[in-house]
Amino acid sequence: MILTRSHLKSRLVSISAPTLSFDHVFVLVECNSEMFLLGCTYTPPSSSVHVYLEHCQVVEELRLRFPLAHLVLLGDYNLTTAVWSTLDEVGMVVECSSSDAPAFRVCESFNGLGLTQVNSLPNNHGNFLDLLFTDIPDIVTHVAIDNLLQNNFHHNAFCFDIPLNNSVEFVSDDIVIYDYSKCNLQELKLFLGRVNWSSVFSHVDINENVAAFNEILLTGISLFTPEKLIRPSNFPRWFSYDLKRLTFEKKKAHAQFKRTGLDSDYRNFSTLRAQCKFFSDQCYKAYLERTNQHLKSNPRYFWKFSEESRKVSGFPKSMFFNDITCSSLQETADLFGQYFSDVYRDSDQPIP
């Protein structure tokens, strides 16, 4: 599974020849002027060399389709005896117990693509089952602190950062409005009193009179009414004040532990994380109960709840189909036409 932030331009990449020998998923992510092809795969234990060759073929085909994208391949390859390293003169090398091990085939194929294996964290048995192949230099793996799943003897969660040439540009959702409660009404009245309204309404066309009136009124409002910034909350609607405060404390404790690495800081962070989870569940249950009560008396709360539950509103800025990207309205319409073209009728056929 690969999850991406909603502000990043990403899409699922289709495989021309899907296989049932192993599980994989690929996502293309665009960040500013850079592209990243992220792949996640799982190879069953004791798989034959043909399964690994099939995986290598898929990766090679994707490299040809997206030659400008950086490759980041992550997954459980189940190559239990393989020991990976990198030599400046040769590139990626691997040592195995058998000369015909699939790891040699993977190493040979990925070396040709300019990839190296950068995960340096073995599992509890000292083996490297989870591998990270990439063509991005200076990627370093770290032990994950906040895991989605519990670690076990075979797999330990790790994290890594992908360096970017340019900082990510975030789209601001801030809204600037007039704060009418602080409007200087006295100055606004004086401003409007100095207007020659007979001259303003001298136009024959009523629309011109309305436009002139609106322009003067809006000018007065902009001169004597301060603006205020409305910044949408990053927290869900059901977060209480105490839960928000606790979340900030948890983030501070997390940053403190990453700086020091002390066990005491980790225990503090772990305690706050558990408290956040407990109160989050409590707040969400209370929110659902309040919503259910309102639904009985006011059906509008159903649509309000439905709108708040949506992750994204409106239409995306860009759409994709068959490796074609479009952003303008005309291109989008043409792409929809291409998608539904198989149900079109030929123009020379009679319409019943």
Automatic annotation (TrEMBL):
Classification via Gene3D superfamilies: Endonuclease/exonuclease/phosphatase
One Gene Ontology term from the biological process aspect of the record: cell adhesion involved in heart morphogenesis
Gene Ontology CC entries for this record: extracellular matrix
Annotated InterPro entries: Endo/exonu/phosph_ase_sf
Protein name (database record): Uncharacterized protein LOC113471105
